[in-house]
Specification:
With about 110 residues, the chain is an all-alpha fold. Helix content is about 50%, strand content about 0%. The chain has a domain at about 20-85. It has three helices and no strands.
């Protein structure tokens, strides 16, 4: 507090590790990419196509970062969607391990 003498206890003085601070930007970007991958997977499992999934993810990023400065560039967003959909606009058919999807008919 201003006007008070310095604390006699070392643990009361805040210390910032500059090495840790330098890693925060990369960790933040990785967190957003992970969230986008999970959201893309959910949308795909719900039956959304590649283009619809890409549009929803881009809209989410625009909402979160309306002033710009998104930690996930457009190329990275495209790579996430392409990896999930195999580079095509058609959704993949998912099967459960050990058999067809639940409720599937022949």
């Amino acid at each position: 507090m201003p006007g008070m003498p310095p604390s006699s206890f070392d643990w009361m003085e805040p210390k910032h590790n500059p090495e840790y601070t330098r890693t925060l930007k990369a960790k933040r970007a990785a967190m957003y990419e992970s969230e986008l991958e999970e959201r893309a997977g959910l949308l795909q499992r719900l039956g959304h196509g590649r283009d619809a999934t890409r549009a929803r993810l881009a809209a989410q990023l625009h909402w979160d970062f309306e002033d710009g400065g998104s930690p996930v560039p457009d190329k990275r967003l495209d790579a996430i969607v392409d990896r999930l959909f195999g580079g095509t606009g058609a959704p993949r058919t998912l099967t459960r391990p050990g058999g067809p999807a639940k409720g599937a008919t022949k």
